Amino acid sequence: MAAGLLSNRVDREDLAVGDHIYSWRAAYIYAHHGIYIGDEMVIHFTRAAGHEIGTGTFLDSFLFSSSPAASSAGDSPPCQRCGHLVRPDGVVMSCLDCFLHGGSLYLFHYGVSPAFFLAKARGGTCTLAASDTGDAVAHRARYLLDKGFGAYSLFKNNCEDFAIYCKTGLLVETAFSVGRSGQLASLTAAFSAVASSPLRFLTTSAGGLAVVTTGLYCVGRYVSDIGVRRDAVKVPVETLVAQTSATATAMEAEVAAETSASAMEAEVTAENSAVAVAADADTVCPPAVDRGS
């Protein structure tokens, strides 16, 4: 673990079933996470290739997915090992090479001490939460590969959230907060530390301001970690899938009801318009009067 303080890089020969691995993307701006299940295969959660954050802007292509579809896109032939497993999005399984997409391999650490956690200034590399056994982790990952992990969300339900859930079985209950992702928690803590208005009243020197800002950043990261959050609860994977399916069914029913209501409203509007047109026609062209008598 001491070596992991400087780098979480690991050789693929040292991987074990159930390991949470990741690889940095776009010059270390963000990382893509997954669960290693053995035989150089990885299960991970992704949005459609080229739509990682779904903003409809150039950022979608900048933050690319690590799905087999992304790796086999363009003129290059599909991967001989996992090309037949291609899915457009959701929970996917791919070989380790496609997952890494040319990047280096890193191991996410669990059950670290508070001192180690704070020493790793970059979020999304470790957590204070303890990991379950490798078999339990692999079971969750395979179950979600078959059943799905819900809708992808950069802030609530991303690839790191998926991997952390598989490792710990922990979910965040609070609706108005970021998910389990250490990357997003780190970013949120940084913005909060810089934007906190009391900073200018706590110190008058540049050095003091840096110390206060660093302190607030560390506190923000620590209280957001899944290992210390009070709103984190253990949820069996079968229960999670059942809840997700029920929510999706309810949303589909709501959308269908809204669509039906809109169709009925449009039909009534069309009928009213037809009646109004007919009334106008009678006004403009009154029936002819018989003057023969």
TrEMBL record:
Pfam families, per the entry: LRAT
InterPro entries: LRAT_dom
Domain LRAT residue range list: 22-175
Domain of life: Eukaryota
Entry protein name: LRAT domain-containing protein
Annotated source species: Urochloa decumbens
Phylogenetic classification of the source organism: Eukaryota, Viridiplantae, Streptophyta, Embryophyta, Tracheophyta
